[in-house]
Amino acid sequence: MTDKVIKNFKGNHAEFMRLFQKAEAQAYKDKDIDLESMKMKELRNFAKERGIRGYSGLKKADLINLIDNWLKTVDDQ
């Protein structure tokens, strides 16, 4: 089914990526991800896989805050 959706999508790349990230963020919110329980490596991978910038030198609390803010921003789009 996802192949059909992707094949028939008529928007530009930026619109597709925005919709994809919004859907992905929602999927993770639905699972009630507990960022606090994740290890730093997991948090960094989470950020990297989603294209979040500026995470590499952050402490855990700051990284969690960055990811949480990103999730909220994607959800608002």
Tell me what you see in this structure.
- 8% of the residues are buried.
- By secondary structure, the chain is mostly helical.
- It has helices at residues 2-8, 13-30, 40-49, 60-76.
- It has one domain.
- The chain contains four helices and no strands.
- It is elongated, with a radius of gyration of 14 Å.
- The longest helix has 18 residues, at 13-30.
- Helix 2 crosses helix 4.
The poorly predicted ranges are none
Count of alpha/pi helices: 4
Q: Tell me about the largest β-sheet.
A: none
Note the overall shape.
elongated
> Per DSSP, what share of the residues sits in E-state strands of 2 or more residues?
under 5%
Instruction: Quote the distance from N terminus to C terminus.
Output: 24 Å
Total beta-strand segments:
0
List keywords for this structure.
77 residues; mainly alpha; 4 helices; 0% strand; elongated
Layout of secondary structure:
Layout: H1 2-8, H2 13-30, H3 40-49, H4 60-76
Helix pairs in contact: 2-4, 3-4
Overview in brief:
This protein is mostly helical.
